[in-house]
Amino acid sequence: MTADFKDWWKSGTPWIWLNAAAVAASLIMVTGLLLLIAVNGLGHFWPATVWQFQYQAPGGETGQLIGEIRETETISVERLRDSGTLPPDHPEGVVERYLLKIGNRDITGLDFRWIPAPQILERTVPDDLVVLERSEWGNFYGFLESVKENGETVAGQQEAWLELQPRLQRVTEIRKQVRHLEKGRIGSINYQLERLRLRQRELELEGKDTPQALAEIQQQRDALQEDFAALQKELNDLYLEMQRDSASLRVMGGQVVDIPLANMIRAYRPNAMHLPARMGFYASKLWEFVSEDPREANTEGGIFPAIFGTVMMVFLMSVLVTPFGVVAAVYLREYARQGLVTRLIRIAVNNLAGVPSIVYGVFGLGFFVYFLGGNIDQLFFPEALPAPTFGTPGIMWASLTLALLTVPVVIVATEEGLSRIPSSIREGSLALGATKAETLWRTVLPMASPAMMTGLILAVARAAGEVAPLMLVGVVKLAPSLPLDGDPPFIHLDRKFMHLGFHIYDVGFQSPNVEAARPLVYATALLLVVVIVILNLAAIAIRNRLRERYRELEQ
Predict the structure, then answer these.
(1) Domain count along the chain
(2) Mean pLDDT of 51-78
(3) 57/187 same-domain check
(4) Which domain holds residue 102?
(5) Same domain, yes or no, for 373 and 517?
(6) Could you give the count of Cα atoms lying within 13 Å of 325 in the half-sphere of its Cβ?
């Protein structure tokens, strides 16, 4: 037995099993983490049951609460008695208490409230209970009493729900028109007016502000102002149309509140929904999450600008980091004399990969933004000063900072790929009359392209999740305009942008309503993982295609 055990131990089999167990444990932990994020995040969009509670306070007075049960916990009676939530004569032990999302923040001042189970006298699930998603002040819970048009009741309790839906759909269509006018046509006119102002200032600085040139600019400005006035009138008419209808709802305590439909995003009755209706609602909420702009301090609505900003920044970073990393690797491997200096450079490159990312952010702010961007403004955009154009954080400086952060990864991966190419291939190419540059461009680099893509994959994986440097060089809580739009030059590298990683930080730690924002933190984190996986899969697919293409040549 002892000899067999020693032979088994020396064979290396225990280490194989140990490695397999470590890999399996890592996979289980990663899978568990993703499941935890998915359950807590994706469950937020399912239409939750809304309860109506009759309760009795410690003083004996009774009341009513309406809301969703967000959390249940077990707590000692002693703690509740000390806080005055339970009467002093309540028996010892533990009880359950519920965290209710009661909404109606503009009326109650609270969005969540704890209620212990012993206080509950009765709880029901009314089918006619209505939930309103609003553009501000969060959710509203109540019973629909009537629908009004210009202050006059057009439908009572029985017909109110059927009358509400088409009118709310009408308001939704008007809201889309308003958004198109504000962000599209009016936004474009404001952009052109600003360009004219800068053009006039440029002529003044150059001494070319002749009466003819100024008259031409004024003529263009007058035409734009005329279009702006017409669009502003159309916008005001749309706002008046939106304010026409309202709904009256009875809230807990019996108070009746009038809410304009212009403030409503969606109205639904979750307790009366059957499974297909719930699934349709869930799909619409998911689509809203990935396609709409955020609202309510980023705790409601969607995160499309953050998705767009993250993907665009990663693409810009990839375009910047790949040529620099590849050129540096080619020089170190193919041209540089292999000696002490080259070894020191490689050591420096490897050490750069371990520098904290916030240090890169400070460097990017000081060098790219203040020094390089400030000089660009002085040379090319003097008409805009003192307002900075490139002398302020923006998506270009964020991409350059992350390119600097990830370039060591690309250099190391590319060098490894170049070192694996047999020297006989280089010698054969040179023997056939090709120059060294032609050999590199037509033979060596194509064969090393899978290694370059591996470095790019690692760079994308790291850059997409970085947050600390971005807080200094371009990312913001809410960006009014995307870096890519229909106004020339179409790609605006000077604009600030939103990022999924920073959005997670902002919603999770800077939100004024932490309990409401918590599910969105999980949902955004899951979406960030999905975006990184999609970007990596795309790069992996390209790498595999290149690897298959040049496999025969390597053999």
Answers:
(1) 3
(2) 87
(3) no
(4) 50-125
(5) yes
(6) 37
